[in-house]
Amino acid sequence: MGEQAYVTYGSAKCGIDGASLDITGCRFSVAPMSDNFVEILTNAFTQVNTSKVWSATDALSSVYRGRACHVVDAVRAFFVAAENPTTHTTMEATFSKGCPGDSDADVYLAEDDTLVNDKFAAKHFPVIAKIALYPMGEPDYMPYIAAVVNRAIDLGIYDKSTHYNTYLAGDVQDLFDYVQWVCDYCGEQIHHYIFELTVSVHSPSLEA
Amino acid sequence: MGEQAYVTYGSAKCGIDGASLDITGCRFSVAPMSDNFVEILTNAFTQVNTSKVWSATDALSSVYRGRACHVVDAVRAFFVAAENPTTHTTMEATFSKGCPGDSDADVYLAEDDTLVNDKFAAKHFPVIAKIALYPMGEPDYMPYIAAVVNRAIDLGIYDKSTHYNTYLAGDVQDLFDYVQWVCDYCGEQIHHYIFELTVSVHSPSLEA
Question: Measuring CA to CA, which residue among B63, B31, B87, B40 is closest to residue A199?
């Protein structure tokens, strides 16, 4: 790999989305802490309807790209499908839109808002989560972060503010409804944002 | 939780570190995909020498705060201590410095650079990783990201650029030496940065 050419996006124009299309994406990894993790993940993959997003998977993570509502719908479905009552499972997910290095490729933009994974929105279980919002290229970025945290407070899913993250706790559906709100809010208000989410279910630390 | 007061850091002054001390931190979560994950994590905790960082752990993650060299030393030690030849294990880690909402609290700043976990730097195994750098409050932030990616290219641990992340592959020690370089570079060059890292070892996807 020593002969690799340098990357060129140091010359990308910040403040201008590299893609002209309205593309929200999420890269995520799910970790079932079980000897059966391959089976659990494979089973989740087969259950999620990805017909309204572009998707790709490699050894480290999966990525969905499309309209925000369909991306959140598919990520929510994956986590709910991977949940298993006897398995401590975590998911880390990076939601983003507007990168100057992005392009109008690797995307599927569905024509309508009809969700294709809404059956997963009927399943309820408690989760804990941590979040962080990174509004890029904004000299005054803290008010956006405060707005997103205060929305969690309004919704009753805020737990605490701590170093580098805000902690949330609540029902899995309330959490993903909130993620949908964050993607909509940031997609409208911020040229380029990254929203980091880690969700945890069935942690033995909580049951101890 | 509905009576929770709003957070106030929307009024924090961006571009000014909320802490006056030179505090680097890392919040991380390790996921051993094994029925024995509690034992593996407990064992890793007892092996890491945290005498030169401030540390805290909850149900979702752990955080180390101190001088960059000691924070990286302790995070490297934790991942190496948690590695198990028969277990697919991942770690997500958020390195950061300079948040306007930070304060001179919850930190231990050691007086010297002598690493207390250097025995973990002698263990070698191949890993794959993904990284992302978020330089906050910088209107022209892409050149910093390119510099960090190009450093990985120089070191021969760059794999590919993909949506929302850069992928790396190489020896675990080369990876953490690189993380140390990134924290030093960003700590000097950027008022407030976040460096996201996900490391994976013993993935069956790679062995298949």
Answer: B31
Q: What is the pLDDT of residue B1?
A: 45
3-class state of residue A146 by DSSP: helix
CA gap B75, B8 in Å, rounded: 31
Residue in this structure with the two tokens 């290219």, named with its chain if needed: B153
Rounded to the nearest 10°, the torsion over CA A136, A164, B83, B158 is: 20
Is residue B36 within 8 A of residue A35, CB to CB? The reply is no
Mutate: best of A41, A142, A155, A201, partner B, most B CBs <10 A: A142
The pair phi, psi for residue A162, each rounded to 5°, is -145, 175
pLDDT at A1: 45
Q: Tell which residue, A55, A128, A60, A116, has the closest CA to residue A88.
A: A128
Q: Do A102 and B4 touch (CB under 8 A)?
A: no
Cβ separation B165–A32 shorter than 8 A: no
B27 → closest Cβ in A100, A141, A163: A163
pLDDT band at residue A104 under the 50/70/90 scheme: confident
Chain B contacts of A4, Cβ < 8 Å? 153, 158
Query: B153, A1: Cβ pair inside 8 Å?
Result: yes
Which letter does DSSP use for residue A64 in this model? E
**What strand order describes the sheet that includes A192-201?**
A54-57, A62-66, A24-32, A89-97, A192-201, A126-136, A165-171, A158-162
Contacts of A12 in chain B (CB under 8 A): 142
Can you tell me the mean pLDDT for B132-158?
Answer: 96
Contact across the interface for A163 and B90, Cβ inside 8 Å: no
To which residue do tokens 């231990």 refer?
Answer: B108
Residue of B nearest to A60 (CA): B200
Q: Which tokens is B142 given?
A: 């892409």
DSSP label at residue A156? T
DSSP string, A105-141: -S----SS---S-GGGGG---EEEEEEEEEEET-SS-
Cβ of A60 within 8 Å of Cβ of B88? The answer is: no
CB contact under 8 A, A34 and B34: yes
A112 or B206, which is more confident? A112
Question: How many beta-carbon pairs below 8 A join chains A and B?
Answer: 199
How much is the ipTM here?
0.95
